[in-house]
Amino acid sequence: MPFITTSDGTEIFYKDWGPEEARPIVFHHGWPLSADDWDAQMLFFLDKGYRVIAHDRRGHGRSAQVSEGHDMDHYAADASAVAEHLDLRNAVHIGHSTGGGQVARYVAQYGQPQGRVAMAVLISSVPPLMVRTERSPEGAPIEILDGLRAGLADSRAQFFLDVASGPFYGFNRKDADVSEGTIRNWWRQGMAGSAKAQYEGIRAFSETDQTEDLKAITVPVLVLQGDDDQVVPYKNAALLQDRLLSNSTLKIYPGYPHGMHTTHADVINRDILAFITG
Asked: Among 115, 116, 187, 247, which one is most buried in terms of CB atoms within 10 A?
């Protein structure tokens, strides 16, 4: 399996499919998952002639379960290490949820200054700031985030099952088209990772202020979110991202859940393709 080793000695697993000369699309997964969460997108864009890349965040999936570095700075640095190792140019970077925060920091601090990034896509993403503060009065109360930590620490296996079968995909909604396979796949990915990395990752995705990251990005960005996102409410996420970004296109999907890139992959893939091809 392909790995790179970062400057602090962390082994990062990545997938790299398609012709080396094809335009690269890089996928950044959400918490607490792995690169496997992008199967529907990677196969779709591979078939369209793109080179598709995704890596497992440190402490997640097949990457090393290191003790330290579970913060947005390290996430972005690790993403940059993969991009530099593969010498990716003219790339499109796509992030979901926590992965959207990773994309924002990577593009602002690495990809854009290095001239490696041409476009970005944020799907149901956490920036600018998820937790409620004086600067973010509509954010999530810290008690909700503490509840996530408690659920993970008390019974990670049951907690992950509850999240996947409930709010993540909107399967707790009346008349939802529940997919047992999707639930099991989410659980499988989550349980493959490090409990410590996932526990500390809650702070990374919820308490990292990325206002300045968004302001610094000048490449075109597609912002996508469902208005029935029960994990990252769109009014505190996509709407604010669109205001802070200087070159963004916003699309809100009525009734779509947090994990809409899986539940509505056909629609999301089509809209991303349209954005990339102009």
From this structure: 116
Clarify whether 97 is annotated catalytic: yes
CA distance 256 to 207: 25
pTM of the model: 0.97
CA 120 centroid distance within chain: 12
Q: Which long-range contacts (CB under 8 A, 24 or more apart) does 151-155 make?
A: 152/195, 152/198, 152/199, 152/202, 153/195, 153/199
**Active site includes 229?**
yes
For 117-236, strand residue ranges (E) read: 117-123, 221-226
Residues 6+ apart with CB under 8 A from 74: 8, 58
Could you give all domains of the chain from N- to C-terminal order, each with its CATH number?
3-277 (3.40.50.1820)
Token reading at 96? 């979901």
Does an H or E element contain 24, and which?
Answer: strand 24-28
Catalytic residue among 28, 29, 60, 258: 258
Altogether, the residues listed in the chain come to a count of 278
Q: What is the pLDDT of residues 11-54, one digit of tens each?
A: 999 999 999 999 999 999 999 999 999 999 999 999 999 999 99
- Is 63 an annotated catalytic residue? no
